[in-house]
Design a protein that fits this description.
The complex is a heterodimer.
Chain A: E1 2-7, E2 10-15, H1 22-28, E3 47-50, E4 53-56, E5 69-71, H2 77-90, H3 99-112, H4 118-124, H5 136-147
Parallel strand pairs in A: 1-5
Antiparallel strand pairs in A: 1-2, 3-4, 3-5
Helix pairs in contact in A: 2-3, 2-5
Chain B: E1 2-7, H1 12-21, E2 25-28, H2 34-37, E3 40-46, E4 55-57, E5 61-65, H3 70-75, H4 77-80, H5 86-92, H6 97-100, H7 105-111, H8 117-124, E6 128-131, E7 137-138, H9 139-144, E8 153-159, E9 164-170, E10 180-187, E11 190-196, E12 203-204, H10 206-213, H11 220-233, H12 244-263
Parallel strand pairs in B: 1-3, 2-3
Antiparallel strand pairs in B: 4-5, 5-8, 6-7, 6-8, 9-10, 10-11, 11-12
Helix pairs in contact in B: 5-8, 10-11, 11-12
Classes of the chains: A alpha+beta, B alpha+beta.
């Protein structure tokens, strides 16, 4: 069935099966920054924004995205680069597999709650697992990113 | 997952008719857990766009549309002010923000999941379910029903009362399902006590609350007695997450703490 989704500001059609998930639809169309992790709603590595809210694309039926706005990390490239700079300076980055999803989740936090406390940052990101960083350096980088006013 | 057909009803009434006519039709709310529970769906009924995601408050009740996401519930200013933010706290304890943005209140309620934290909190808030066709039904009655019926949940209604509330979730990690969860409320000396993930689906400890409701003022000893009563009337069991014995021990201590929290201004110890 044909659906129309606005991905990173560009509206385009997708031919999907009713049981397809957004993760596969996006990856099959070339958005490989959307990563496959646990594939069961737990790890957050497949996170994309749907109408500005972070959702696990592995559990979001593609047909539900019809007519909605989807953002991958490419859609927030400038913000992601700013966050990446802080990640580098704080040593918060190793394998990088979770980075696109984390950048999207942090960007959503910034638009929703720019003055988030450390506890609120931790709570917001509880569903975004990282097996490398140990989280403390990520927290420091995110704090600096949120405090930086463009 | 394989879905054969998709129906996009134009109204809740049309959705109900599809569900009634086709026993194999499955309503799709947020779809957060469907992947984990179903491998094949004959007909998926999409409920998006039917206006079932609204949260409307008046003087007496707050009506939460069944398609409201857990995030929308957590962020609602009226609900955040009720029972010390009991429902908001509970929603925020369900996995991460990305799941809370997908999972819906209706999906959680109709799924009847034994691990559900929301069912426990809603029971303690005396929630009522509103359906497209059936008469409104107390959530406590719905979870205890012996027979199934087919209908479309349209909203969950919560009485707008001034009271205290407490919610406790015990889990191995923030992302895991509960080993045990419990919620208690106290509205001017009238208590509701709910315990879930025992590992059965959440239940009210009705007799324990009723005995407590007859006592004014309530002492620490009365609360200890109420905990004993609740443990006596609720069934606990073992599964891969925890043993019955461990769950009983957790319930004994955390229920006592929660009852103290909703009873006294300061911890009487």
């Amino acid at each position: 069935m044909l659906i129309r989704v606005e991905v990173n500001g560009l509206s385009r059609p997708f031919d999907v099966e009713p049981g397809d998930y957004l993760l596969d639809t996006l990856r099959n169309a070339g958005w490989l920054s959307v990563r496959r992790g646990c594939d069961s709603t737990s790890c957050g590595v497949c996170t994309v924004l749907v109408d500005g809210r972070p959702v696990p694309s592995c559990s979001f039926l593609s047909i539900r995205a019809d007519g909605r706005k989807v953002t991958t990390v490419e859609g927030i490239a400038a913000e992601a680069e700013r966050l990446a700079r802080h990640f580098g300076e704080e040593g918060a980055d190793q394998c990088g597999y979770c980075n696109p999803s984390l950048a999207l989740a942090v960007y959503a936090l910034k638009t929703t709650k720019p003055d988030a406390t450390d506890d609120e940052i931790r709570t917001w990101l509880v569903g975004n697992l990282c097996r490398c960083s140990g989280y403390q350096s990520q927290l420091a980088a995110i704090r600096r990113y949120l405090e930086e006013r463009p | 997952m394989r879905i054969e057909n998709v129906v996009r009803p134009a109204s809740a009434e049309e959705a109900y008719k599809v569900l009634l006519a086709d026993k194999n039709a499955v309503p799709i709310g947020g779809g957060a857990w469907i992947k984990l529970t179903l491998k094949e769906i004959q007909t998926a009924v999409l409920l998006d766009g039917l206006g079932l995601d609204r949260i409307v408050a008046d003087q007496r009740t707050v009506e939460i549309g069944s398609l409201a996401t857990l995030s929308a519930v957590a962020e609602d200013p009226v609900l955040s002010g009720m029972y010390g933010g009991l429902l908001s706290t509970t929603c925020r304890r369900v996995m991460g923000i990305n799941v809370q943005d997908v999972a819906t209140l209706g999906g959680t309620v109709m799924g009847g999941y034994a691990f559900s934290d929301l069912l426990t909190a809603l029971l303690a808030m005396d929630a009522t379910l509103r359906f497209q066709k059936h008469e409104p039904m107390k959530l406590a009655e719905y979870v205890a029903r012996k027979t199934n019926f087919r209908d479309l949940l349209t909203a969950v209604s919560i009485p707008r009362r001034n009271g205290r509330g407490a919610f406790v979730k015990i889990a191995r990690t923030r992302l895991d399902f509960a080993i045990l969860n419990l919620a208690v409320t106290n509205v001017n000396g009238l208590y509701l006590i709910a315990v879930g993930a025992r590992p059965g689906v959440a239940r009210l400890a009705t007799a324990a609350a009723e005995r407590l409701n007859e006592i004014h003022p309530v002492s620490v000893f009365d609360l200890e007695k109420a905990v004993g009563d609740a443990l006596g009337e609720l069934d606990f069991g073992s599964n891969g997450r925890a043993s019955e014995e461990y769950r009983r021990m957790l319930a004994k201590h955390h229920l006592f703490r929660a009852l103290k929290e909703v009873t006294f201004d300061a911890d009487p110890r």
